[in-house]
Amino acid sequence: VGPYVLVTPNETRRKQLQQIAKKELDDLEQWKKEHRPGPITLVPQRLGGNESEAQVRQNQQTILMQSKYQKKHKREEYVKAKKAAEEAEILKKKAIQREKAERLEVKKRQEEMQRRQMFLEDQKYKTNELLNRLDVGLPKSDSCQIAKPGPESTAWKRSHAYKQALREDENRRLEEMKQEQQRKAELMELKQKQEEENRTRTLKNEQRSCLQSLLIFYCTLRVNNAFLDRLQNKTQPNNVCHPGYTG
Fold it and tell me: Among 39, 60, 89, 126, which one is least packed by beta carbons within 10 Å?
């Protein structure tokens, strides 16, 4: 620590400063007392407004009740709109799932038809192979020699008849498959028409119920307004001017 100088306080100077400060504070308080604002006195007088206090209160009550009905109506409309949106979303999801199921069913039927066709082709190939084996050794159609009727010609006739029967059976199966596919297509079309009619009927019922709700609300609102008008006419006093009343 370096050297320092100790200065003794001047008591006389300190007392003088304290007295000056006290005198200034006293002068400030005296000035505040002298310049304090006095009481305000106003003569009562009639201001603007042409309705009585009872009428204003009644109007406020009517506006409050109407605002309550409006808030209630808005809340009900919001709930209905939210419910309708949820139902529409559910119906949309159901329609998507239904379309997926129908596409899957069509794909399964096509695969089944392909398997049946492959099976029939394989069966036809095996049958032709067997018949070709049976036809070995029989005379050719373009041979110059005329084959005499015998057991070989009888076997050829049997094989030809068997081939013809297989061909007819195959044609019959194909025709049955075509008819089955046509019946399924007609049933699917009928089912789609019924679903479309059901959706249209449901939409009409929802619209009808919504219109009925709006009509009921409108009638209720008219009844309430009429009741408030009657109540206001009964409780409305004569126009009285009260002194000091602000309309």
Answer: 39
